[in-house]
Design goal:
By secondary structure, the chain is of the alpha/beta class. It has 3 domains: 245 residues, no CATH class; 217 residues, Nitrilase/N-carbamoyl-D-aminoacid amidohydrolase; 34 residues, no CATH class. It contains 15 helices and 12 strands. The strands form 2 sheets. It has a 6-stranded mixed sheet with strand order 5-4-3-2-1-12. Helix 2 crosses helix 6 and helix 4 packs antiparallel against helix 5. The longest helix is centred in the middle third of the chain and has 34 residues. The two termini are 44 Å apart. About 1% of the residues have low confidence.
């Protein structure tokens, strides 16, 4: 008998390391591609990075089991959402931020399951993109009313796909981006396969090519839907950013100072108007929380707001916190210079853990400090808010509501000729939150072909044309005002008319693809067992 073969310890270790690296590579790639997707979002204008992010995600998930699909999808979600939502913990610590990301990443993990299961179907990019949008649809609705922040569409304000927002809203815009990304991976995979086998699968290659070409061609075609032409004349609007004494949650303790700052900036603007430096506005827009002192219960707050309206000589939309019948509301108040308060809009989509506290008793048992931050829950409004301001119909979408498709569309279908998104970002310091929200407003401008103004307490306030272009904006944490003549429009885009229908169609496509994949898998297992 010969001598037994001696194993080289170094080669054995190297092979083990190589094997471990091969097993870890998909996980690392999933997480890093999620980070790449985050980098494509504002304040950066690197929108195109979303395409390679989804291409890598497609490679990671192809042919995986459902368990691997969930794990890899979850890692992709963490890589994307952890940095994207870091602003949620700026003032309250990492606990709420991490809890939010852990929950939201579950949706991405479930999408990963669906994409992995459907990855071997013909037309895989289509099913994958539809499944992603289905995941966004679910995330925008549950839990606690949903959290749409991080929709793919919201990262595309500077991209070539933007006009698709006017065609089918955020679902169609997001679908096009994701489809193009998965299509790029499929093209690369088929090219490698053809080089190895010297054969081209024409049908699969055609689908992959169309997955890339159709979104681009569709976006170019949809440019005809984007216009900033005035259909109902123009209006001169003033946006007031009064600033706050200091950033963070503590700004609430300076409520009177915040109100006085906005009055002061309005009076400063009035002086410039009298001096002929700027044109007189038809109406003035203040931000959310510009008066956290209830003017209906505090005569001094009523008096200073009324004085500001009189000195500027135009109606003002004031963001207030008011109490009605013992209930707390985040309210926009239409303040006429001669009649005083004449109309109100109560915010309908209120923010969980910010404006109301779900599971209050449970959360209080975990950390009593969190319950003290939201001592009294805000109540929801029930009607759309469209103010008639000097003859112009202005739709109000208060801050967090801008992330929700229905909340913006309802104002347009109720007759809004332009949209205002009064916001307060003082609680998030100098984080990326304000830029992410500004990008949402740009998407909404194109989606509904309306001028959008963004009056913010501490920056960045802006005026956005119906084509999504920012024509004026302020800095952060400065007192400033913007005055501009803007176009008024009343026609409805296909996105406005169709509403939720494109999203429903994509969810049905996703469901059909997933069902097909499950049935195919079951049949294959049965055939293999015969």
């Amino acid at each position: 008998m010969g001598e037994p073969e001696q194993l080289d310890p170094q080669s054995t270790l190297a092979s083990r390391v190589a094997g471990l690296a091969r097993r870890l590579l998909p996980a690392v790639a999933a997480a890093l591609s999620g980070v790449l997707l985050y980098v494509s979002f504002p304040p950066r204008s690197l929108w195109w990075l979303a395409l390679p992010a989804f291409a890598v995600f497609g490679w990671v998930l192809r042919g995986r089991t459902w368990k691997s699909g969930f794990g890899l999808g979850y890692l992709f979600g963490l890589g994307f959402l952890l940095p994207l939502l870091v602003w949620t913990g700026v003032e309250v610590g990492p606990g709420p931020w991490l809890a939010l990301v852990v929950i939201e990443a579950v949706f991405v993990g479930l999408v990963g399951v669906g994409i992995a299961v459907a990855s071997r179907l013909p037309g895989a990019p289509v099913w994958a993109a539809a499944l992603w949008i289905a995941g966004e649809a679910a995330r925008a609705r549950v839990p606690f009313g949903g959290f749409p922040w991080g929709k793919i569409a919201f990262g595309q304000a500077d991209g070539v796909f933007l006009p698709l927002a006017a065609l089918g809203g955020t679902p169609v815009l997001g679908f096009a981006v994701v489809l193009c990304g998965f299509g790029l991976y499929e093209l690369a995979r088929l090219a490698v396969e053809a080089r190895r086998t010297h054969a081209v699968r024409r049908a699969a290659a055609s689908v992959a090519l169309l997955s890339v070409a159709v979104p681009v061609v569709g976006a170019l075609g949809a440019r005809s839907l984007v216009s900033d032409t005035a259909e109902d004349g123009t209006a001169t609007v003033a946006v007031i950013q009064g600033n706050v004494p200091r950033a963070g949650l503590d700004f609430n303790s300076q409520r009177r100072a915040v109100l006085d700052y906005h009055v002061r900036e309005t009076e400063r603007l009035a002086a410039e108007i009298r001096a002929g430096k700027v044109p007189r506005p038809d109406f003035v827009l203040w931000p959310e929380n510009s008066s956290d002192i209830d003017p209906f219960r505090n005569p001094d707050a009523y008096a200073v707001i009324d004085g500001a309206a009189q000195v500027i000589g135009a109606p003002i939309s004031v963001g207030g916190v008011v109490v009605k019948d013992g209930k707390l509301y985040n309210e926009q108040i239409l303040w006429d210079p001669s009649k005083g308060p004449t109309d109100t809009y109560d915010k309908r989509q209120i923010q969980p853990f910010g404006e109301y506290l779900p599971l209050r008793s449970l959360i209080g048992a975990i950390n009593s400090e969190w319950t003290s931050m939201v001592r009294q829950d805000f109540s929801r409004g029930s009607e759309p808010g469209v103010f008639t301001m000097d003859g112009t119909k202005v739709g109000l979408v208060t801050c967090y509501e801008a992330a929700f498709d229905w909340a913006v569309r309802s104002e347009v279908t109720d007759g809004a000729q332009m949209i205002s998104v009064p916001s307060n970002n003082a609680t998030f310091d100098r984080s990326e939150m304000t830029y992410q929200q500004l990008a949402m407003s740009r998407i909404r401008a194109v989606e509904h072909s309306r001028t959008v103004t963004v009056p913010v307490t501490s920056g960045v306030s802006a005026v956005i044309m119906p084509d999504g272009e920012i024509t004026q904006k302020t800095g952060m944490f400065v007192a400033d005002s913007l005055v501009q003549k803007v176009p008024l429009r009343s026609s409805e885009t296909p996105a406005t008319r169709l509403g939720v229908l494109p999203e429903m169609l994509l969810v049905l496509i996703a469901t059909g693809g997933l069902g097909w994949a499950v049935v195919t898998g079951v049949r294959q297992r049965r055939a293999g067992g015969v």
